[in-house]
Amino acid sequence: MTSCIFCKIIEGSIPSVKVYEDEHVFAFMDIMPVTKGHVLLIPKTHRENVYDLTEDEASNLFAVAPKIARALKEEFKPVGMNLLQNNGAFAGQSVFHFHLHFIPRFDETDGIDFKWDTKESELGAEQIQEIAKAIQSNLVK
Questions:
Q1: CA separation (Å) from 69 to 22, 63, 78, 125, 135?
Q2: Residue 43 CA to chain centroid, in angstroms?
Q3: Residues marked as catalytic
Q4: Residue-range domains of the chain with CATH
Q5: Residue 116 clears pLDDT 80, i.e. is over it
Q6: Which of 5, 36, 102, 132 has the least C-beta neighbours within 10 A?
Q7: Going by DSSP bridges, is the β-strand pair 80-84/100-105 parallel, antiparallel, or unpaired?
Q8: What SS3 string covers the chain?
Q9: pTM above 0.70, yes or no
């Protein structure tokens, strides 16, 4: 896709600082890092979001994810790490090529807060079962 910035990074027409590459995926440093070591991992095939990934593409991408995470852990010794992936503008996606963020966390002063309020479900056990069945009926075998 010629207008996609990440596709241009893969083809080399836009520079990047590469961390990892194989025939299926490309990992590079985020140019606007949230923390030191912030890396993006993308499939080489243009896919807008997780809904568009094939199972093989997802498998290839997530086979590399632990390698990236372990390399970041070894190099920077973070106290934690967030893996973040947004789908759609409402969810915060700004580049519409699937990408997985690796965000090393160093302490509570890093300015990042991914916490959300949890509350007791207003749904009963029967409703939760019905929702699960509805989801299951839509799973592609």
A1: 16, 11, 10, 37, 30
A2: 11
A3: 99
A4: 5-115 (3.30.428.10)
A5: no
A6: 132
A7: antiparallel
A8: CCCCHHHHHHHCCCCCCEEEECCCEEEEECCCCCCCCCEEEEECCCCCCHHHCCHHHHHHHHHHHHHHHHHHHHHHCCCEEEEECCCCHHHCCCCCCCCEEEEEECCCCCCCCCCCCCCCCCCCHHHHHHHHHHHHHCCCC
A9: yes
